[in-house]
Amino acid sequence: MSETEKHRRIRSYVLRTGRMTPGQERAYEENWSRWGLVHADGPLDFDTCFGRPGPKVLEIGFGMGQSLVEMAVAAPDNNFVGIEVHKPGVGRLLHSMVDEGVNNVRVYCHDAVEVLRDCIADESLDTVQIFFPDPWHKKRHHKRRLIQSEFVTQLTRKLKSGGILHLATDWQQYAEQMMDVLTAAEGLSNSDGPEQFSPRPDDRPLTKFEARGERLGHGVWDLLFVKD
């Protein structure tokens, strides 16, 4: 094994091989050139990309994009950038954007760590949101969890002073780890007080999965931290 392979970063995701539906494929082919962003293009100029200034919101791991599109509809003055590694989810997001007449979302289909490093300027974002990242339930897989101190340091650099880091999970043990990591991070303060989880903000849509979980008594934990 080479030194490069030994020190290769442990990824927080595994690329699934699921095929896109015909609708997702069509939406991707017809709309990627309009709303897609390419990591290889380098630093992103938000104002040029969106054709206007506006609050800059980055969502990492938007899944099928349902809540991201809902947030974009509810906040038309915000400029949203979503990052998702799974192409079917990107296709579904683009399909929903067409259905809802949304034009204030742009999307990367790429590794979020690399997009942050190469495309997003320091102190440029008003909000970073990560909702229901893979909890990697088994203890031996906890090292794959996205919310680790090094990654949070990277996120913090990208936020403006006063910017918001908003996390949410439905896995209590992961929520507790998130709280520990964010509490220990330099430059962040808990908006609800030390070690306090936040009520779900009105601007985070309630997903069907989450609503079903609530009916069954399952918990959801939101964390809102502010950059000092």
UniProtKB/TrEMBL annotation:
The keyword Ligase does not apply. It is an enzyme of class 2 (transferase). Keywords: Methyltransferase, S-adenosyl-L-methionine, Transferase, tRNA processing. S-adenosyl-L-methionine binds at residues 59, 84, 111, 134. Pathway: tRNA modification; N(7)-methylguanine-tRNA biosynthesis. It catalyses: guanosine(46) in tRNA + S-adenosyl-L-methionine = N(7)-methylguanosine(46) in tRNA + S-adenosyl-L-homocysteine. Substrate binds at residues 138, 170, 207-210. Its EC number is 2.1.1.33. One of its GO terms (molecular function) is tRNA (guanine(46)-N7)-methyltransferase activity. HAMAP family: tRNA_methyltr_TrmB. Catalyzes the formation of N(7)-methylguanine at position 46 (m7G46) in tRNA. NCBIfam families: tRNA (guanosine(46)-N7)-methyltransferase TrmB. Belongs to the class I-like SAM-binding methyltransferase superfamily. TrmB family. This is tRNA (guanine-N(7)-)-methyltransferase. It comes from Candidatus Seongchinamella marina.
